């Protein structure tokens, strides 16, 4: 049967040599299959099934917790003291804490006005708030535009500071750290941070500061992200589904159980004393936000996630920008885990259960296992078992567990449930990049410290694409060709063909769909395409 299947798959275009090649391949395959391939594949399947169970248990645990939280209405206002800040006739505005609002940016031509305008529009006593724009732009034109915008708001009576530096050392972490060195920061009690594409509502500070003011053990109040361009294309809809799960489940569960979760780097307010006590901003990884959160948590500080407070933001809508972002978001946590795992183990300020939660649940399962098992198991090992029928994957591991995990992940975005199949295929492709990035972070090699600022298109993309649609854009094939996706797509397509011809598990239905997803993304037909100017 094996010999016949090998022969059938070889093309007819090799007359006279086809039989010899088939015999040689068949002989080599027969020699290494039983003693080497089968045992290795069985071990790989066992490891992947073990990781699948870890991920399954974690997802079910979070589903149970979030269901309980929603049923009993376990909101932050019930767990912690929260009262509106009231005017004091005697103290006047000095009754209000001093707040610093930081906006780090880098060549943000499309969105700088939105973020600065939203920050300057925050409702708070004007003499108790400082807006600090940290501009690392290297484009002199954009730099000048940002400075003019700051001056424009300053002329309206807003206390806004435009700060620059002569290098980009440490990237965002370096800019935030440098921003904290200015003398006027010493007057501030709390610091709100917004990336350049974030637009907080005017009442943002009124809803977050009371948590910090009335609860001395709270270090961070994190708001949820709201995506203004979720409907821009299918890729942004897929991102919305993934991030909605992160916010509605992961962040909510972390806040409700261990008062710990990863700071999202923006749309949050920090107690400055907690930030300084934790050692301030560090640029040793590409996730300076998570780094700070873990260090502050190990000092005993608590975090609050306010899920019904939403801050507008933009999703990356080009595939290139999204790949860079996902590399950073996957590589950074793995690298931070490598650097901090022993610090967490040796820490004596937090309970054993919290250590286990941070090491196992937060880092190992969510930041490492989730990426690896999604790609290695479903896009490498499972297809390989088609070629080696001696290795069998139980139905619970191949169907039931991934189906349950998928449903639990997707339920955070009910409006997109009809896109579930597309989301699965898209996430499996992105899992390849996340897996590579995870190993780079764990091994601390190659692009471990690569920081590419996520491209924001703002409202300008609509006009840009509209004006260029009539013209024939200058298109270079290589710009949209991704060989890694095409290579995996070809592998899956081959396994699908083999399974259709000789298999018994009917994996080919999945393998064909997944291979097409890799091909589509490999040829760059995903996301928004902005033609070159």
TrEMBL record:
Localization, per the record, is: Golgi apparatus membrane
* Top EC group: transferase
Q: One MF term from GO for this chain?
A: mannan synthase activity
Task: Provide the coiled-coil residue spans.
Answer: none
Question: For this UniProt entry, what's an example GO CC term?
Answer: Golgi membrane
Which biological processes are named by the entry's GO terms?
cell wall organization
Cite the Glycosyltransferase 2-like domain residue spans from the record: 190-380
Q: Which InterPro entries match?
A: Glyco_trans_2-like, Nucleotide-diphossugar_trans
- Record keywords, A-Z: Cell wall biogenesis/degradation, Glycosyltransferase, Golgi apparatus, Membrane, Transferase, Transmembrane, Transmembrane helix
For this protein, the Enzyme Commission number is 2.4.1.32
How would you describe this protein's topology in the membrane? Answer: Multi-pass membrane protein
At the top level, the lineage of the source is Eukaryota
Q: Which residues cross the membrane?
A: 43-69, 368-388, 400-426, 481-501, 507-530
An example of a Pfam family matching this protein is Glyco_trans_2_3
Q: Which reaction does it catalyse?
A: GDP-mannose + (glucomannan)n = GDP + (glucomannan)n+1
Q: Which family does it belong to?
A: Belongs to the glycosyltransferase 2 family. Plant cellulose synthase-like A subfamily.
User: Could you tell me what this protein is called?
Assistant: glucomannan 4-beta-mannosyltransferase
> Lineage of this protein's species?
Eukaryota, Viridiplantae, Streptophyta, Embryophyta, Tracheophyta
